[in-house]
Automatic annotation (TrEMBL):
Gene3D superfamilies: Galactose-binding domain-like. The keyword Magnesium does not apply. Pfam families: DUF642. Residues 26-183, 196-359 form the DUF642 domain. The keyword Mitochondrion does not apply. Keywords: Cell wall, Glycoprotein, Secreted, Signal. Residues 1-19 form the signal peptide. It is found in: Secreted, Cell wall. Its main location: secreted. This is DUF642 domain-containing protein.
Length: 382
């Protein structure tokens, strides 16, 4: 009996290992699709004929295995990571089983590109959570964008699914998917002794950056993602913000920052505990990401009844300046908001905007000497 029970446990362990890949920060197993199906499993050279033909992935519906440089009519399909990607036709999906820690938070990063459809979107889910990522707005100059989507693990084994709900006349006219990665998120705590009431004020905690992806990662608004890929921060309104890294962009402090690419249609928000009647000081850096986004920028910050507009003349080659907003709290919780006043566009037609980094909020414990009710506006450049 003991030998039989041991054998049964071993069989179950092997089955679970095959069913769910143990995730570590980085690309998922075959996350860049460089391991392809046998040519015998491809119909007409691209269409995957079996649901388990692509190693580590399960597919359903019309899924194509695309090689970089593949031609579709007058369109040349380019793959950003390696030489291969998949294309999801109408109602097609890819899925992978993952082994995770229940209760932990994770961010999925993947790259996607429109092909011939004009109003594409993707459903991303880790059961029982799901989100919808619209792809009408193209932020990357080469047609590809990287997206982040976060979830809280409810079970030790979950299934990541990326699904195209499209209803195009051409059933193969769907988005390309490449470079699927994951990163465990660690909810940031207040740094003791710093006095900073903002969590993750330097934006160092966030989603994974794909190797050689020089266009950053789009973080969608929270209406499309129940859990923010930027811990402690919410993206409010209808457009995404761009998460950038020091390896490919100019970052004022540390290794990561946020570029406000949605104008007034997106806002970066964090809610902080405050004491009504106390004075507080919000300090932050405003700059440009050295991504060719040039022109007269204005970043806005709001807290309680106070607001400040920070002008920044960008040459598109990097640089920043610091700003301070003093305010008096009027409630037990105060929303700190960052927003771009204007829309900006690079010469290649892609959206861009001012950079926000190194944000801190400290209590002064007494009301400002001038003004009343927190209405005084103060801007200092340090």
């Amino acid at each position: 009996m003991r030998r039989g029970a041991l054998l049964l446990l071993l069989v179950c362990a092997v089955a679970l290992a095959r069913a769910a890949a143990v995730v570590t920060d980085g690309l998922l197993p075959n996350g860049n699709f460089e391991e392809g199906p046998p040519k015998s499993e491809l119909v007409n050279g691209t269409v995957v004929s079996r649901g388990d033909a692509i190693p580590q992935w399960e597919t359903s519906g019309l899924v194509e295995y695309i090689e970089s440089g593949h031609k579709q009519g007058d369109m040349l399909l380019v793959v950003p990571q390696g030489a291969h990607a998949v294309r999801l036709g109408n109602e097609a999906s890819i899925r992978q089983r993952l082994s995770v820690s229940p209760g932990a938070y994770y961010a999925i990063t993947f790259s996607a590109a429109r092909t011939c459809a004009q109003a594409e979107r993707l459903n991303v889910s880790v059961s029982p959570e799901w989100g919808v990522l619209p792809m009408q707005t193209i932020y990357g100059s080469n047609g590809w964008d990287s997206y982040a989507w976060a979830f809280k693990a409810k079970l030790p084994a979950v299934t990541l699914l990326i699904h195209n709900p499209g209803v195009e006349e051409d059933p193969a006219c769907g988005p390309l998917i490449d470079g699927v990665a994951i990163r465990a998120l660690y909810p940031p705590a207040l740094v003791r002794g710093s006095g900073n009431l903002l969590k993750n004020g330097g934006f160092e905690e966030g989603p994974y950056f794909l190797p050689n992806a020089s266009w950053g990662v789009l973080v969608p608004p929270n209406i499309e993602d129940d859990h923010s890929p930027l811990p402690a921060w919410m993206i409010v309104s209808s457009k995404a913000v761009k998460y950038v890294d020091a390896a490919h962009f100019a970052v004022p402090q540390g290794a990561r920052a946020v570029e406000l690419v949605g104008g007034r249609e997106s806002a970066l928000v964090q809610e902080v505990r405050t004491v009504p009647g106390w004075a507080y000081r919000l300090a932050f850096a405003v700059g440009d990401a050295a991504d060719g986004c040039a022109g007269a920028m204005v970043a806005e910050a709001y807290a309680a009844r106070a607001t400040v507009k920070v002008p920044y003349e960008s040459r598109g080659v990097g640089g920043y300046k610091r700003a301070v907003l003093d305010f008096t709290a009027i409630a037990n919780r105060t929303r700190v908001v960052f927003q771009s006043t204007f829309y900006h566009m690079k010469p290649d037609g892609t959206l861009c905007g001012p950079l926000i980094d190194d944000a801190s909020l400290v209590g002064l414990r007494k009301k400002p000497a001038a003004g009343a009710g927190g209405r005084r506006r103060l801007l200092k450049f340090l």
